Automatic annotation (TrEMBL), chain A:
InterPro entries listed in its UniProt record: ChsH2_C (IPR002878), NA-bd_OB-fold (IPR012340), Thioester_dehydratase-like (IPR052513)
Record-given protein name: DNA-binding protein
Source species, domain of life: Bacteria
A GO MF term: DNA binding
Keywords: DNA-binding
The keyword DNA-binding is assigned to this record: yes
Residue span(s) of domain ChsH2 C-terminal OB-fold: 57-115
UniProtKB/TrEMBL annotation, chain B:
InterPro entries per record: Thiolase, Thiolase-like, Thiolase_C_2
Pfam families documented for this protein: Thiolase_C_1 (PF22691)
Gene Ontology MF annotations: acetyl-CoA C-acyltransferase activity
Protein name: Acetyl-CoA acetyltransferase
Taxonomic superkingdom: Bacteria
Residue stretches making up the Thiolase C-terminal domain: 250-387
Length: 130, 389
């Protein structure tokens, strides 16, 4: 397929985000929900960006739709960067993979897949659903 | 406290260089500082307030005050990317109104061209301490694809076309042909833009600004000092600033921080978009201009594509003459930051010092708008409204 050869820079986890990346190793996408106002947010933080309440991890379905995308033609190889709106609400930056780049469209239903970054840490990306 | 009438822009200077192989960044800052002070009829010794942003080497205003030989009682290093300098004009006016300084110098300089920087397509290199970095760098965000996602969404949501975006570059090129310092002076057509290579869908190479060295400086001062000088009087009428970000995952790429900064500036100035005779709009990409024009209220949200088409931004042709120096799309983009040069051309228009071929007649009210950072993630916006007195 289109962008399987791209070297994916490895994310550098920290104490605030380690559970997110640990879960990615198990093929699970985590979000954070505020204990006080019950709203989800992304990227995950220790304190809710909407009310500064304490937050807790929960697993996302992994389903979403493409909010916007662009094919970076100047890169070798070209790749599809995107914002994906998860069915739980938050919109997150990612890549669209396992699809010919010219077939990527806004509104497409996508599902999370995990691709290894350059140090082996899996990162969540999205492929066409079903 | 309002800054309306509290301060005047007394001096401006734009460095003519577009490739500064044989100059340092600090030297460029000094050359533009000298140029703007000369333009105002002031000297280094008159400066008691200094403003710079992330392009200044070293410890910001501390390193630069020493290099420039300034004795200061007020400094401000507000850093909001390319929009910093509009913010600085506003903060300088505020400081002057509060009596914290009387002659404020703002400088910008950089040499990304000489350093061989691939500004739009190089990977971001934010250290791990930056909280968003680990959730973005794996996916290859670069400046071009971030702005491209704004364009893609605008096209999807409002039916905007690549042809409409191309008109923004076409208008800039019509102006740049008259600017002897512009990097690209050739007039281009919509077809030329669409035929240029795709950098990041849907943005073509000619949708992207140029990469140049250079810089510029602005002197802001009190009404009393401004009126004692020989230059035309350019009054700060109003200003607004606002950052915008991904808002915890509630992402909307169809507007910029200008949607907040613009109304604040118009309210302070007591004018409306219809009163503006000339607008400098930060043109990092064609889509940047379109979003800001909508956010400023020159047309409804979503109608920007139709508004910019058919030469509506060309001086002497359209309703909203913009970037009559050729802007970032054609003339220059010093330090990869376009906010300061936007103010410079607005001041030239108000003084009647723009090139005669692009000078707006009876230009008594102008606007300069900047954004900086990435419209696709987090950025600053600054709006400044200026009046010839
Ligand atoms: Zn909360």
């Amino acid at each position: 397929m289109s962008d399987q050869q791209r070297t994916i820079p490895a994310p550098v986890a920290n104490v605030e985000t380690k559970p997110y990346w640990d879960a990615a190793r198990e093929g699970r996408l985590l979000l954070k929900r505020c204990i006080a106002c019950h709203q989800l947010h992304f990227y995950p933080r220790a304190l809710c960006p909407f009310c500064y309440g304490e937050t807790a991890w929960e697993e996302a379905s992994g389903n979403g739709r493409i909010y916007s995308f662009s094919i970076t033609r100047k890169a070798a190889p070209p790749y599809a960067i995107a914002f994906v709106t998860l069915e739980e609400g938050p919109t997150i930056m990612s890549n669209i993979v396992d699809i010919p780049l010219d077939e990527v469209r806004i509104g497409q239903r996508v599902r999370v897949v995990f691709k290894p970054s350059e140090d082996g840490q899996p990162v969540p990306m999205f492929a066409p659903a079903g | 406290m309002s800054i309306n009438g509290a301060a005047y822009i007394a001096g401006i200077y734009e460095h003519p260089t577009r490739l500064a192989q044989d100059k340092t960044v600090a030297q460029l800052h000094a050359e533009v500082a000298k140029g703007a002070l000369d333009d105002a009829g002031l000297t280094r010794a008159d400066v008691d307030g200094y403003f710079c942003a992330g392009d200044a080497p070293g410890l910001g205003p501390l390193s630069m005050a020493e290099y420039l030989g300034l004795k200061l009682r007020h400094v401000d290093s507000t850093e909001t990317g390319g929009s910093s300098y509009g913010v600085h004009v506003s903060h300088a006016a505020q400081a002057i109104a509060a009596g914290k300084c009387s002659v404020a110098l703002i400088t910008l300089a950089g040499r990304p061209k000489a350093e061989g920087m691939a500004t739009g397509t190089r990977p971001f290199a934010f250290p791990p301490v930056v909280p968003d970095a680990q959730f973005e760098t794996p996916y290859g965000p670069v400046i071009a694809n971030m702005y491209a996602m704004c364009a893609m969404r605008h096209m999807y949501q409002f039916g905007t076309t690549s042809e409409q975006l191309a008109w923004i570059k076409v208008a800039a090129s019509h102006h740049a042909q008259h600017n002897p310092h512009a990097l690209r002076r050739e007039v281009v057509t919509v077809e030329d833009v669409l035929a240029s290579p795709l950098i990041a869908d849907p943005l073509h190479r000619l949708d992207c600004c140029v990469i140049t060295d250079g810089g510029g400086a602005i002197v802001v001062t009190t009404p009393e000092i401004a009126k004692s000088l020989k230059r035309p009087l350019v009054k700060v009428r109003g200003a607004g600033e606002a950052p915008k970000h991904l808002n915890g995952g509630r992402v909307d790429l169809t507007y910029t921080g200008t949607a907040v900064s613009g109304p604040i500036a118009f309210a302070e100035a007591g004018v409306t978009p219809a009163d503006i005779k000339y607008a400098s709009i930060y043109d990092s990409f064609t889509i940047s201009v379109l979003l800001q024009i909508e956010d400023l209220g020159f047309c409804d949200k979503g109608a920007g594509g139709r508004f910019v088409a058919d030469g509506n931004l060309i001086s002497g042709v359209g309703m909203l003459p913009f970037n009559t120096d050729g802007g970032g799309l054609c003339s220059n983009h010093p330090a990869n930051r376009g906010g300061l040069t936007k103010v410079l051309e607005a001041v030239r228009q108000l003084r009647g010092e723009a090139h005669p071929a692009v000078q707006v007649r009876n230009c008594d009210l102008a606007l300069a708008n900047g954004t900086g950072g990435s419209l696709g993630t987090r950025h600053g916006a600054a709006t400044v409204i200026l009046e010839r007195e």
